[in-house]
Design a protein that fits this description.
There is one protein chain. By secondary structure, this protein is mostly helical. Among the domains are: 34 residues, no CATH class; 207 residues, MFS general substrate transporter like domains (Growth Hormone, Chain: A). 62% of the residues lie in helices and 3% in strands.
């Protein structure tokens, strides 16, 4: 049989692109799923179309996850002067302890911005609710791990993405019309749950729908869109006039509109169908991609279909059967490699030595990534003079990081890129220890050089963590085989959510003790650097595995719940 040798063939139809393989039109040829996707086109029209659709939805996701701290900004507090002739700007603690002096009473000013904190008066005895609101959103994201990876593995990547989209749009709409804070919390949990499920599955999808070039450029594009969305968040929020309008016009309505292209223009990934042994459907999707990418039809078969061809041959030439006494006795745990691969679960993330080492290392690295990434955003109010301005500056920095991410990933590989970026984060965060803000400079309107330098360090740290996050997504997708990729990425994203759940409280405690939260982030970065340096290996130009059983040839399992494959 012809097994898909590489060659060059001129297209017989002028509008079709010349194929890289000269025998993909032969029904007797067999292709690997990687070669089939490469034939259909890597980073071509279909892949770019999918990227455009996901980019719009990812921008909305950025509005919620990154813009939410802006919706919790408290008003400016004014306390009566001692002589009762006027008021002065004061800290929240002083405001809450103040009383009226004559006719002059403590008051607040919302600066023309109606935030959740000003609308529901989340200060003084209700101040703790701002931390809870920040955490419930991430708690919902944490819950996504227990649902969406299973949906993606059982029903398909596209189905899971559609479910996440519908729940996300409905949740944003419900929050926009929330009658009270309790109702809002419920749908913030649901929104965080759905948005995080969407994030898990789109990165699995982009890793599986094409070759290496698209995997790299898709993460760069999505990361850049995520950062650019943060740049426009501040002016959009200032123009909106109210937090409920933000949820309605910038989240709910655009998300509902984006459901149609998501449903009609996004196909199931051929790699997932191939792993599920739905070869005919996989080839059908490959041909749809070929048509969109102006490639000649793919008429060859996939490697997995060789077993079916062999079974057909045995109907004509049945193998000699051993006598009953010579036949091995079946055991309850006996399974073929194919059966094993379809029974993948979370324990497979730790079953073999190589993937176990990767999984344990990535769990901490993802925890550090989210704690630092979101911690920088939540620390901005105490680092500078104006929260919206600081937010925009760090967003510009992150945008540059995502643009340069492709150069790093292709130029020096994943591991060195991760190491260099984490060193940027670590040293810029640790440097903040030497710049404590004087007590007289704690008011938002006060100016001092320490605040200016801290904002500069935060901008540099945001560049480093933005670069780090973009590369980490690609690296994590490449570490896991197809049948546990959604589980692996889902587990790491879920553990990272533990960092974001704990982060608001830790940042608040450090701020109350006049310690820069960046110091803790720098210390955590040192440990992450050591783990990456000594426990992770390069994945650039390495073949992506399809099943966890293929790992068995590399390492013996630590946990044995099945007989080893001979």
């Amino acid at each position: 049989m012809d097994f898909g040798s590489i060659g060059v063939q001129a297209s017989t139809t002028s509008h079709l692109k010349r194929p890289r393989y000269d025998n993909a039109s032969s029904e007797r040829a067999f292709f690997s799923i990687d070669d089939a996707l490469d034939y259909a086109g890597d980073n071509s029209r279909f892949q770019k179309r999918v990227n455009y659709i996901f980019s719009v939805q990812y921008a909305i996701y950025s509005f919620l996850m990154m813009g939410f701290p802006l919706l919790l900004v408290k008003p400016t507090f004014y306390c009566p002067d001692l002589d009762g002739t006027g008021v002065h700007v004061c800290l929240e603690k002083e405001f809450c302890e103040s009383v009226c002096i004559g006719t002059v009473c403590p008051r607040v000013h919302d600066n023309g911005e109606t935030t959740i904190a000003t609308d529901y008066e989340l200060y003084c005895d209700k101040s703790y609710l701002t931390g809870i609101l920040g955490s419930v959103l991430f708690f919902g994201s944490f819950l996504a791990f227990f649902f969406f990876p299973y949906i993606g593995n059982s029903k398909g990547r596209k189905f899971g993405i559609l479910v996440a989209n519908i729940i996300s749009a409905a949740s944003a709409l419900a929050v926009a019309f929330a009658p009270n804070i309790e109702f809002m919390m419920v749908f913030l949990i649901l929104g965080g749950f759905a948005f995080s499920g969407f994030e898990i599955l789109i990165f699995v999808y982009t890793a599986e729908v094409s070759g290496e070039r698209f995997r790299n450029y898709s993460t760069v594009t999505l990361g850049t869109v995520w950062a650019v969305a943060q740049i426009i968040i501040s002016p959009l929020f200032l123009l909106s006039g109210g937090w409920n309008y933000i949820f309605l016009f910038y989240m709910a309505i655009p998300w509902f509109i984006s459901l149609w292209p998501n449903f009609t223009m996004v196909f199931e990934t051929p790699r997932f169908l191939n792993q599920q042994k739905k070869y005919v459907k996989a080839r059908e999707i490959i041909n749809k991609i070929c048509e969109i990418n102006l490639r000649q039809p793919f008429r060859a078969k996939l490697y997995g279909e060789m077993d079916e061809e062999n079974e057909k041959m045995t109907t004509f030439f049945p193998p000699k059967q051993p006598r009953i006494s010579e036949q091995p006795r079946p055991t309850t745990n006996s399974k073929t490699p194919q059966q094993q691969s379809t029974a993948s679960g979370y324990m497979d993330l730790f079953r073999y030595a190589k993937i176990r080492r990767v999984s344990l290392a990535l769990l901490y690295i993802w925890f550090f990534k989210n704690f630092t990434y979101f911690g920088l955003t939540y620390s901005l109010p105490v680092l500078g003079t104006e929260v919206y301005q600081n937010f925009t500056l760090t967003a510009f920095s992150e945008t540059l990081a995502n643009i340069y991410a492709a150069r790093f990933k292709f130029g020096i590989g994943r591991i060195q890129s991760l190491n260099y970026s984490i060193l940027i984060v670590t040293f810029s965060c640790l440097a903040s220890y030497f710049l404590p803000i004087p007590e007289e400079c704690l008011l938002e309107q006060s100016q001092c050089y320490q605040k200016t330098l801290l904002v500069l360090l935060a901008v540099i740290a945001k560049f480093g963590i933005g670069l780090f996050a973009n590369i980490l997504i690609t690296y994590t997708s490449e570490c896991y085989p197809t049948d546990i990729r959604a589980l692996g990425l889902g587990l790491n994203l879920t553990v990272s959510r533990l960092g974001t759940i704990a982060m608001p409280y830790i940042v608040t405690i450090m701020q109350d003790n006049y310690v820069s939260p960046l110091v803790l982030m720098g210390a955590m970065g040192l440990l992450a650097f050591v783990i990456i340096k000594f426990f992770l290996t390069e994945t650039l130009n390495e073949t992506m595995l399809d099943t966890v059983v293929e790992m068995q040839a590399m390492n013996a399992p630590l946990l044995r719940n099945q007989d080893p494959v001979e």
